[in-house]
User: Fold these one by one.
Assistant:
Number 1:
Amino acid sequence: MVTFIEKDCFNHCRINIELSIAGIILPYTSIYICVRIISILMDDGTGRCSRILIATFYFSFISLVTGCTNKKLSQPFNQDSSYSRKDSLLTSKETPDNSISYDTGKRYIYITLDDGPQHGTMKCYHILRSLGVKASFFMIGIQGMEKRARLNVDTIRNAYPQFLLCNHTYTHAYHNKYKLFYGKPDSALADLAAAQDSLRVPLKIFRTPANNSWAIGGKYRSPQLTRAFCQAADSVGYKAIGWDVVWNFKNGATPIQSTTEMVREVNLAFDHHEAFTRNHVVVLAHDRMFEKPQYADSLYKFIALLRQDPRNVFETIDHYPGVAFNK
């Protein structure tokens, strides 16, 4: 009786496991076939010990599959509902770094968005596009490898002159290990170059992860931590772009300042000459802050309020003073 119960329980368990495998059989077909062959061979004349071994093999396989799947889905990339495939096909005859003439009576604003492609990237894209406002997207190389993420990268790259694709390193400083990353400038420079190549960034413009660093044509302003890296990058033609006003967030993505507070900070940066370059203010925000509708509306209102001042001109960061590349 005990043997029968064990066998019945084992068979019932195996059937359930096989059904689970069948549900994910397409990506794991070859492994599943191997498991079934081993099961048949071991069931032929084997006793209780062999059945336990094959059951253990099944459970190990399911654990492996579940673990891999969970790991992959721990930070899923969801394509924004506002995305249209035709967006990635947009092209422009203009190329980045077309020179411009500055009007002394104007105030130049550079909207910059970090950490894409991620949730909220295409929300930002469509909001800014609908308002006719220029912006620059600083993207992370490793986040642009999946097919859907790659479409977002292509969309931004192809949308010049309204949007400019820029470099935010390949690994975001070894996944936020800042001391390790900046402590080895040569390795950090290789990481930067990897993002430049993988994302096909048109110009050597980048931002240092989690640090407000400037390096433009021998002019530096950066914390000690990033100085050696910025100097190394500058020596091979890169321009490091920091920020003058930052839209802070909490809980990973929730904007802290209101739209009116942000407008006030921008005006103060102009009026008190607090920017890195007088009359040119760089605003930093992160794509994910505007994924949810209520916060997407905050971005829209912020830009709309700034547009009400006729002095304000929005530009991509390749038109920032000193950021010029010989063609």
Number 2:
Amino acid sequence: MRGSQTCWSEAVSNRERPGRGVVRERHGGRGRGAPAAPWVPPGAPGGTIDGNLLTVGATLGLPVQVEGSPACVGDPHVARGDGEVSQTAMGQNCVRAAIVLLAARSGMDLAEVRR
């Protein structure tokens, strides 16, 4: 590590872009008490997203599929390809980031949630 770079050698390094690969509702529309829904491919309840824009300061809105279903956030990366296309990422320790989850009622304007 050198600043915000991960150095593989003197000639090769990657810029850090920390973020979470998975953001989703646990049950994914399967009903409360059902086993967790698959993470790949991502769908309306979220999943393995791995987007480069999903990082510090990002806002992501996902519809609740099952009332009371817990949210899942994980698969921390220090850098990754953009989207679930490249299947490559550099792992990261979870201690380095915090995520705030907000819930909104049906019909609520997203601007209200951001206040």
Number 3:
Amino acid sequence: MYNLKEIKKTCDLFFKAYQSYDDFIPDWLDSKPPLRKTVRAILSKADTVDLPEDFWKAQASLYIDAHMLTDPKSIRKMLKEVEPFASEDTRKALAFWADNPGFWCFYAIKETLGDDFFIIEDLVTGQTHLLHSSDIGYMQTDVAYRNKHYLSLMLFNGSCLQAIGFPKFNSLPASDLQFFLSLFSPGLALSPAINRNFIRLLDLESISSLPVFVEGDVALKQTWQSFRLKDFSIFDLEGTWDSQEKGRLQIYRFVQEAASYASLPNFSVLEAERGILTATLVRDNKSGEMGLLTSTDTSYTLFALLLNRSYPELDLPEKPSVSISLGLSLLLSEGTYPLPWNKFKGLLDAQDEYDDNPIPVPELTPERLQELLDLSGDDNHVDIRDVLSRPTAQKQAYQDTYQVDPNDKGFEMFDWPVPPLGIQDLFDSTLNDSVVFEVMEDKRSLDLFNTLTNGSYANLIEQDGLASFITSLFADAYPEKVSMFLMNAFLWSLYYKGSSWVPARSYALEILKMKSYPLTPIYFEREAFLQDFTSFIKRILCTRGLCSLAKRPSPEEVRLGTFTIKGSDAFYSLIRPGEYRSY
């Protein structure tokens, strides 16, 4: 039985000591240039991420505390430097922390004791602790924070743990957090991995409010298991599988089981998870590298057994090497992370568009997140069937639909293949990773580009290649969330309309019609985007050899984007739409 009244006194003393220690941080930080650089990087996020400036200041402070208070050597050095003038309580606290350094803890509440005391379980080690935290107490009063998993920098005060800074929160299991950190620092324990990758950890803030997605009692996942087979035929697995091929890479999507599947030990999974079950195989036909991806842990087991039966030499493990929640999978699919399946990412992204029965995932807008919170109970679980039953589940209710201004009707393009939504959703790749375009870089295309540009960019092109050179033109000019879409949409339009002289404004207008969101929140006004993008065409794309001007435009033509352009011979020698082959 805890004497919480006495322990609370200790907590108050330690908190005062922590506040006084804060006065000595600036001098300590001056001796740590790498930490100062990261602090500046954290604070600079306020310019690009829509969160209050105070949030980023708090994150910078937490980052500093984590590096100081988890390192006994740094604590002892500070103690030695401040000993002549620090208070006795501060000296005692620093000495105690040097022997009992801080650590990161990912935890769940097991029991609420009152007066902001809690029994918590460390989700990584399984150990239980007594925690005092007024912030955790406050978070239990708000449905957005209640009963989550929490991540805190912890200090021990001799009686209980105390959390430093406002706790981070999400619904991820410990295995998700460990996998995320292993992408950047494989093999490191939790505390050093977080300290080393604190900025990357901030990416998880974007999914902190997401619940756990389930269907009934089954959690939706993304699993991955790599393996290698020198010889492979999809017919060995029987059943029906869709297939697409791109160069040496091939993808197979499970469609229908064969009668022989009934002899598999867990065949019942197929019927039980029919609405959410997906299984995908990817293969490098040259190297034999392969991977199995499924949408639940149990479906992984089923298809691993199927592969082991067809190829006994495989001996795939009972559990996959990667099994992450749908929430983390959504985050990883939107960024550039060193994922085990990156080699096949282009094919996997394309597969989603050709899949007539994908796992339904709700649009993650602020309004949609609130809707999910309303659907989730105290266990933070949301049944995907409840999401789909909502009227907005199959609607893109939060994307803007662009209406062409009457004055721009004359600039609309006709008689060309507007890319379907399935293709448009692939417009997020670089040219090197594209499954939409085939890049045919050879001596002829290099000579044509260098001739058009008088060799001004020859060294850069020789160093990076034409695909990277073109990608960088857009990546350097536009925010990450729109740069690749703008590139791919323009290249598609130019390929099909660039054989004739067409106003630059027409290209910008058609891109706005394709996907006005998220362009509209960036530019706010239609004309701002049209003028900016047509200016970019003239200043950058025409001078780098992608397109040609019919004549020197007047200042008014430049301002309105009414000057006409054509795709260059260099462009057509380099790029053409790729082809998918389905079986």
